[in-house]
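Example record

The entry below shows one chain as it appears in the dataset: sequence first, then structure tokens.
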Amino acid sequence: MPQTFTNKTTNGAWTEETLRNTFIASDNGRSVRETLTAFEIPRTTLQDRRKVGCYCKFSQGQKPVFSEASEKKFAYEVVKLGKLFYGITPTEIVKYAFAYARKNN
């Protein structure tokens, strides 16, 4: 039976629409603390987005090393090697990915 992942934290649970509504409510005279509790957005998030001047939601975690196209190409090659019964270990895949990144940097 497959396991399903349940998120244990509420980091980044807000949407761009919610953030936009928080900006509008605080600009219309509501206190910042009141709007933050009403829309459930962290105070530092509101500060950071006001500083940048953007309602957008930034991605969390590390930035990707490969572009989406090169990652798909690399994944295709790994799957192709698997279908040809070429025994490639995860350690070798990491080694080849590092070499690929160095070569195409």
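Notes for this example: The mean pLDDT is 84. The two ends are 42 Å apart (CA to CA).
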